[in-house]
Design goal:
This protein has 109 residues and is mainly beta. The protein is built from two helices and nine strands; from the N terminus they run H-E-E-E-H-E-E-E-E-E-E. It is 10% helix and 39% strand. The strands form three sheets. The chain has a five-stranded antiparallel sheet with strand order 3-2-1-4-7. A two-stranded antiparallel ribbon has the order 5-6. The longest helix is centred in the N-terminal third of the chain and has 7 residues. The two termini are 18 Å apart.
């Protein structure tokens, strides 16, 4: 498979975090997230982003998500999408987010 085709198989979409709460059963500090992906509906995600973000700061925030990786159950919570981030110089996860408003569910290319 060539690189372009490999990239195109990954379905990345923009969503808005509607709700965030501590995932107390997870082994590593995490949040349970509910992400509105527009026409794709509201999907859940377990995200290890506790070092830089508080639940109340996440609500309403736009994020980039991989939506076609399948569902994993993490400590009893279904994680349907992967919220994308990158590590900063200290190893903390920084969320990837559009710089401007875009429609929910918009495909990233």
């Amino acid at each position: 498979m060539d690189a372009l085709h490999a990239f195109q198989t990954l379905d990345l979409r923009v969503g808005r975090i509607l709700r965030a709460e501590p995932h107390e059963k997870a082994r590593k500090p995490s949040y349970k997230l509910w992400v509105d992906l527009g026409p794709l509906g509201v999907k859940t995600s377990s995200a290890q982003i506790t070092e830089l973000y508080r639940p109340e700061d996440l609500m309403g925030r736009l994020v980039v998500c991989a939506v076609n990786l399948g569902t994993r159950v993490i400590a009893g919570f279904p994680s349907e999408v992967l919220v994308l981030g990158a590590r900063d110089g200290e190893g903390r996860v920084v969320l990837l987010t559009p710089e401007r408003e875009v429609p929910l569910g918009e495909k990233v290319f």
